[in-house]
Automatic annotation (TrEMBL):
The keyword DNA repair does not apply. The chain crosses the membrane at residues 20-48, 85-103, 110-128, 140-159, 179-200, 206-224, 254-274. It is an enzyme of class 2 (transferase). Its main location: membrane. Pathway: Lipid metabolism; Phospholipid metabolism; CDP-diacylglycerol biosynthesis; CDP-diacylglycerol from sn-glycerol 3-phosphate: step 3/3. Belongs to the CDS family. This is Phosphatidate cytidylyltransferase. It comes from Algimonas porphyrae. The gene is cdsA. It is a multi-pass membrane protein.
Length: 275
Protein backbone atom coordinates (compact mmCIF):
# COMPACT_ATOMS: atom_id res chain seq x y z
CA UNK A 1 0.00 0.00 0.00
CA UNK A 2 1.28 3.47 -0.93
CA UNK A 3 0.99 5.86 1.96
CA UNK A 4 -0.77 9.13 1.16
CA UNK A 5 1.28 12.09 2.43
CA UNK A 6 -0.10 13.56 5.62
CA UNK A 7 -2.26 10.56 6.50
CA UNK A 8 0.12 8.88 8.94
CA UNK A 9 -0.80 11.17 11.82
CA UNK A 10 -4.24 12.27 10.58
CA UNK A 11 -6.06 11.13 13.73
CA UNK A 12 -3.43 12.34 16.19
CA UNK A 13 -5.16 15.64 16.99
CA UNK A 14 -8.64 14.23 17.69
CA UNK A 15 -7.17 11.27 19.57
CA UNK A 16 -5.10 13.54 21.81
CA UNK A 17 -8.01 15.90 22.49
CA UNK A 18 -10.34 12.99 23.27
CA UNK A 19 -7.78 11.49 25.66
CA UNK A 20 -7.41 14.80 27.52
CA UNK A 21 -11.19 15.17 27.88
CA UNK A 22 -11.50 11.60 29.21
CA UNK A 23 -8.75 12.22 31.76
CA UNK A 24 -10.42 15.43 32.95
CA UNK A 25 -13.74 13.62 33.36
CA UNK A 26 -12.25 10.67 35.24
CA UNK A 27 -9.61 12.22 37.46
CA UNK A 28 -11.82 13.47 40.34
CA UNK A 29 -13.99 10.32 40.64
CA UNK A 30 -10.86 8.19 40.37
CA UNK A 31 -9.22 10.10 43.21
CA UNK A 32 -12.32 9.89 45.42
CA UNK A 33 -13.11 6.23 44.72
CA UNK A 34 -16.08 4.49 46.30
CA UNK A 35 -19.57 5.37 45.13
CA UNK A 36 -18.44 8.33 43.01
CA UNK A 37 -16.02 6.19 41.02
CA UNK A 38 -18.57 3.37 40.80
CA UNK A 39 -21.15 5.77 39.35
CA UNK A 40 -18.75 6.85 36.60
CA UNK A 41 -17.81 3.23 35.86
CA UNK A 42 -21.52 2.34 35.69
CA UNK A 43 -22.25 5.13 33.19
CA UNK A 44 -19.34 4.05 31.00
CA UNK A 45 -20.28 0.36 31.26
CA UNK A 46 -23.90 1.07 30.32
CA UNK A 47 -22.72 2.86 27.19
CA UNK A 48 -20.32 0.04 26.31
CA UNK A 49 -23.07 -2.54 26.83
CA UNK A 50 -25.29 -0.50 24.52
CA UNK A 51 -22.55 -0.41 21.86
CA UNK A 52 -21.94 -4.15 22.20
CA UNK A 53 -25.62 -5.02 21.86
CA UNK A 54 -26.13 -2.63 18.96
CA UNK A 55 -23.14 -4.26 17.24
CA UNK A 56 -23.92 -7.93 17.93
CA UNK A 57 -27.68 -8.01 18.56
CA UNK A 58 -29.37 -5.17 16.63
CA UNK A 59 -32.72 -6.99 16.77
CA UNK A 60 -32.77 -7.18 20.57
CA UNK A 61 -36.05 -5.92 21.96
CA UNK A 62 -36.81 -4.24 25.24
CA UNK A 63 -36.63 -7.51 27.19
CA UNK A 64 -33.21 -8.49 25.85
CA UNK A 65 -31.78 -5.03 26.47
CA UNK A 66 -33.29 -4.86 29.95
CA UNK A 67 -31.82 -8.20 31.03
CA UNK A 68 -28.33 -7.09 30.03
CA UNK A 69 -28.61 -3.65 31.63
CA UNK A 70 -30.21 -4.91 34.85
CA UNK A 71 -27.56 -7.62 35.16
CA UNK A 72 -24.88 -4.98 34.71
CA UNK A 73 -26.33 -2.62 37.31
CA UNK A 74 -26.96 -5.34 39.91
CA UNK A 75 -23.41 -6.69 39.49
CA UNK A 76 -21.97 -3.21 39.99
CA UNK A 77 -24.14 -2.57 43.05
CA UNK A 78 -22.69 -5.70 44.65
CA UNK A 79 -19.20 -4.63 43.59
CA UNK A 80 -19.47 -1.21 45.23
CA UNK A 81 -20.56 -2.97 48.42
CA UNK A 82 -17.40 -5.08 48.30
CA UNK A 83 -19.22 -8.34 47.53
CA UNK A 84 -17.33 -9.92 44.62
CA UNK A 85 -18.97 -13.35 44.90
CA UNK A 86 -22.45 -11.84 44.65
CA UNK A 87 -21.34 -9.61 41.78
CA UNK A 88 -20.09 -12.62 39.79
CA UNK A 89 -23.25 -14.57 40.69
CA UNK A 90 -25.39 -11.72 39.34
CA UNK A 91 -23.30 -11.72 36.16
CA UNK A 92 -23.83 -15.48 35.70
CA UNK A 93 -27.57 -15.24 36.29
CA UNK A 94 -27.92 -12.32 33.87
CA UNK A 95 -25.91 -14.16 31.22
CA UNK A 96 -28.09 -17.26 31.59
CA UNK A 97 -31.33 -15.34 31.15
CA UNK A 98 -29.90 -13.19 28.34
CA UNK A 99 -28.80 -16.29 26.41
CA UNK A 100 -32.20 -17.94 26.97
CA UNK A 101 -33.98 -14.81 25.74
CA UNK A 102 -31.88 -14.75 22.57
CA UNK A 103 -32.33 -18.43 21.67
CA UNK A 104 -35.28 -17.87 19.29
CA UNK A 105 -33.34 -15.43 17.08
CA UNK A 106 -29.95 -17.18 17.26
CA UNK A 107 -26.49 -15.77 17.90
CA UNK A 108 -26.42 -16.79 21.55
CA UNK A 109 -22.62 -16.99 21.48
CA UNK A 110 -22.38 -13.21 21.15
CA UNK A 111 -24.51 -12.80 24.26
CA UNK A 112 -22.66 -15.48 26.22
CA UNK A 113 -19.39 -13.69 25.49
CA UNK A 114 -20.66 -10.13 25.61
CA UNK A 115 -22.12 -9.89 29.10
CA UNK A 116 -19.00 -11.20 30.90
CA UNK A 117 -16.80 -9.19 28.49
CA UNK A 118 -18.48 -5.94 29.53
CA UNK A 119 -19.55 -6.60 33.12
CA UNK A 120 -16.50 -8.37 34.58
CA UNK A 121 -14.00 -5.55 33.84
CA UNK A 122 -16.48 -2.99 35.21
CA UNK A 123 -16.86 -5.01 38.42
CA UNK A 124 -13.08 -5.30 38.77
CA UNK A 125 -12.58 -1.57 38.17
CA UNK A 126 -14.79 -0.90 41.18
CA UNK A 127 -13.36 -3.67 43.37
CA UNK A 128 -9.75 -2.76 42.62
CA UNK A 129 -10.25 0.96 43.28
CA UNK A 130 -12.08 0.43 46.55
CA UNK A 131 -13.44 3.21 48.74
CA UNK A 132 -10.26 4.75 50.17
CA UNK A 133 -9.72 8.35 49.08
CA UNK A 134 -6.34 9.57 47.85
CA UNK A 135 -3.29 8.83 45.77
CA UNK A 136 -1.44 6.77 48.37
CA UNK A 137 -3.99 3.97 48.61
CA UNK A 138 -3.66 0.40 47.40
CA UNK A 139 -6.64 0.67 45.06
CA UNK A 140 -5.54 3.91 43.44
CA UNK A 141 -1.94 2.80 42.88
CA UNK A 142 -2.85 -0.63 41.52
CA UNK A 143 -5.43 0.69 39.11
CA UNK A 144 -3.33 3.63 37.95
CA UNK A 145 -0.46 1.19 37.37
CA UNK A 146 -2.65 -0.80 34.96
CA UNK A 147 -3.99 2.30 33.25
CA UNK A 148 -0.62 3.97 32.61
CA UNK A 149 0.77 0.69 31.23
CA UNK A 150 -2.14 0.33 28.81
CA UNK A 151 -1.85 3.97 27.73
CA UNK A 152 1.92 3.65 27.30
CA UNK A 153 1.51 0.47 25.25
CA UNK A 154 -1.09 2.18 23.08
CA UNK A 155 1.09 5.27 22.56
CA UNK A 156 4.20 3.22 21.86
CA UNK A 157 2.34 1.00 19.41
CA UNK A 158 0.75 3.98 17.65
CA UNK A 159 3.98 5.89 17.07
CA UNK A 160 6.21 2.85 16.65
CA UNK A 161 3.90 1.07 14.24
CA UNK A 162 3.22 4.22 12.23
CA UNK A 163 6.91 5.08 11.97
CA UNK A 164 8.44 1.63 11.41
CA UNK A 165 5.65 -0.37 9.78
CA UNK A 166 6.59 -3.86 8.71
CA UNK A 167 4.80 -7.21 9.02
CA UNK A 168 1.24 -7.24 10.29
CA UNK A 169 0.48 -8.86 13.62
CA UNK A 170 -2.87 -10.31 12.56
CA UNK A 171 -3.81 -8.95 9.12
CA UNK A 172 -7.13 -10.79 8.99
CA UNK A 173 -8.21 -9.43 12.36
CA UNK A 174 -6.61 -6.00 12.65
CA UNK A 175 -4.92 -4.84 9.44
CA UNK A 176 -3.37 -1.74 11.06
CA UNK A 177 -1.59 -3.53 13.92
CA UNK A 178 2.05 -4.44 13.24
CA UNK A 179 4.66 -6.47 15.08
CA UNK A 180 6.84 -3.36 15.27
CA UNK A 181 4.00 -1.50 16.97
CA UNK A 182 3.49 -4.27 19.52
CA UNK A 183 7.22 -4.43 20.31
CA UNK A 184 7.48 -0.64 20.62
CA UNK A 185 4.39 -0.61 22.81
CA UNK A 186 5.83 -3.34 25.03
CA UNK A 187 9.16 -1.54 25.41
CA UNK A 188 7.60 1.84 26.15
CA UNK A 189 5.10 0.31 28.57
CA UNK A 190 7.92 -1.45 30.43
CA UNK A 191 9.84 1.80 30.76
CA UNK A 192 6.75 3.62 32.04
CA UNK A 193 6.03 0.73 34.42
CA UNK A 194 9.53 1.04 35.91
CA UNK A 195 9.07 4.79 36.39
CA UNK A 196 5.63 4.32 37.93
CA UNK A 197 6.99 1.54 40.09
CA UNK A 198 9.66 3.83 41.51
CA UNK A 199 6.97 6.20 42.77
CA UNK A 200 4.91 3.34 44.19
CA UNK A 201 7.86 1.48 45.71
CA UNK A 202 7.91 -1.54 43.39
CA UNK A 203 11.21 -3.25 42.55
CA UNK A 204 12.21 -2.77 38.91
CA UNK A 205 12.01 -6.50 38.21
CA UNK A 206 8.48 -6.75 39.60
CA UNK A 207 7.36 -3.69 37.64
CA UNK A 208 8.51 -5.29 34.38
CA UNK A 209 7.12 -8.71 35.31
CA UNK A 210 3.72 -7.12 35.88
CA UNK A 211 3.88 -4.87 32.82
CA UNK A 212 4.56 -7.55 30.22
CA UNK A 213 1.44 -9.72 30.82
CA UNK A 214 -0.73 -6.61 31.25
CA UNK A 215 0.40 -5.45 27.79
CA UNK A 216 -0.32 -8.91 26.38
CA UNK A 217 -3.83 -8.81 27.85
CA UNK A 218 -4.36 -5.36 26.37
CA UNK A 219 -3.28 -6.52 22.90
CA UNK A 220 -5.56 -9.55 23.12
CA UNK A 221 -8.42 -7.26 24.14
CA UNK A 222 -7.79 -5.04 21.14
CA UNK A 223 -7.65 -8.02 18.78
CA UNK A 224 -10.81 -9.51 20.28
CA UNK A 225 -12.80 -6.36 19.63
CA UNK A 226 -11.35 -6.07 16.12
CA UNK A 227 -12.38 -9.68 15.46
CA UNK A 228 -15.94 -9.01 16.55
CA UNK A 229 -16.18 -5.88 14.39
CA UNK A 230 -14.91 -7.78 11.37
CA UNK A 231 -17.38 -10.62 11.96
CA UNK A 232 -20.34 -8.24 12.12
CA UNK A 233 -19.02 -5.97 9.36
CA UNK A 234 -18.56 -2.59 11.05
CA UNK A 235 -15.61 -0.22 11.37
CA UNK A 236 -16.38 1.42 14.74
CA UNK A 237 -18.75 0.61 17.59
CA UNK A 238 -20.00 4.20 17.64
CA UNK A 239 -19.19 7.84 16.96
CA UNK A 240 -19.13 9.16 20.52
CA UNK A 241 -15.39 9.86 20.67
CA UNK A 242 -13.74 11.84 17.82
CA UNK A 243 -10.74 9.98 16.43
CA UNK A 244 -11.65 6.79 18.29
CA UNK A 245 -15.24 5.82 17.46
CA UNK A 246 -17.21 4.45 20.39
CA UNK A 247 -16.26 3.95 24.01
CA UNK A 248 -15.68 0.27 23.31
CA UNK A 249 -13.21 1.20 20.57
CA UNK A 250 -11.26 3.31 23.07
CA UNK A 251 -11.42 1.03 26.11
CA UNK A 252 -11.17 -2.44 24.54
CA UNK A 253 -7.49 -2.77 25.53
CA UNK A 254 -8.11 -1.64 29.10
CA UNK A 255 -11.00 -4.05 29.68
CA UNK A 256 -8.99 -7.26 29.43
CA UNK A 257 -5.92 -5.58 30.94
CA UNK A 258 -7.93 -4.93 34.11
CA UNK A 259 -8.88 -8.61 34.26
CA UNK A 260 -5.25 -9.64 33.77
CA UNK A 261 -4.01 -7.05 36.25
CA UNK A 262 -6.49 -8.19 38.91
CA UNK A 263 -5.26 -11.78 38.52
CA UNK A 264 -1.64 -10.65 38.81
CA UNK A 265 -2.31 -8.63 41.95
CA UNK A 266 -3.96 -11.68 43.50
CA UNK A 267 -0.84 -13.72 42.69
CA UNK A 268 1.65 -11.27 44.19
CA UNK A 269 -0.50 -10.65 47.27
CA UNK A 270 1.35 -8.69 49.93
CA UNK A 271 4.26 -7.94 47.58
CA UNK A 272 2.43 -4.76 46.63
CA UNK A 273 4.14 -2.08 48.75
CA UNK A 274 1.03 -0.06 49.67
CA UNK A 275 -1.33 -1.70 52.13
Amino acid sequence: MVEVPGTRWKNLGPRLLTAIVLVLICIAPFYIGGFVWALLVALIAVRIMYEWMRMTDPDAGLIGQSIAMIGLVVSLVYAVQGLPVWAIAALCVATFFAVAERLPRGGTGWTAIGLPYVILPAVLLILLRGSDVGFDTRGFTQLIFIIVIVIAADVGAYFGGSSIGGPKLAPKLSPNKTWSGVVCGLIFASVVAVIAGLFIGLPISLSVLLAVPIVVFSVVGDLLESTVKRRVGIKDTGTLLPGHGGLLDRLDSLMLAVVGGALLFMLIGDSWPIA
